[in-house]
Amino acid sequence: MPTNGQIDQRHPTGERQIPALSGLPRPLYARAESLSAGSWTPPHRHDWVQFSYAISGVLGVHTAEGSFFAPPQWGVWVPAGLEHEVVTSMRAEMRSLYIRTADSGWAPQRC
Fold first, then answer.
1. CATH classification of the domain holding 98
2. Calpha distance 68→33 (Å, rounded)
3. What is the side-by-side strand order in the sheet with 28-35?
4. Which residue range is the domain that position 80 belongs to?
5. Of 80, 39, 81, 32, whose CA–CA distance to 60 is shortest?
6. Which of 39, 75, 78, 88 could form a disulfide with 92 if both were Cys (CB 3.0 to 4.6 A apart)?
7. Residues 40-66: pLDDT tens digits?
């Protein structure tokens, strides 16, 4: 189990399980993840905004709009409802902030 108390949801093949949330428990919800080399999520979408920030390693976020990469100290903005997948080719530390759609009217609508 990671030191942040969250269950390690990585699959032996590198596939990461997406948290089973039907909605956010509060307007802002933060997650911390340690990702192994070759980690990936299947394409998915959700009803909240996601900002994923790389502490170390490089995050790749692929959408129909394009592919976006975040080296350390950079992040990727994912609007609510946009199908995306997150991949890492090397070990990475990722921090994500999920923002409830009702509280994100100011948010950009593109990555």
1. 2.60.120.10
2. 19
3. 28-35, 92-100, 48-56, 75-78
4. 32-102
5. 39
6. 88
7. 999 999 999 999 999 999 999 999 999
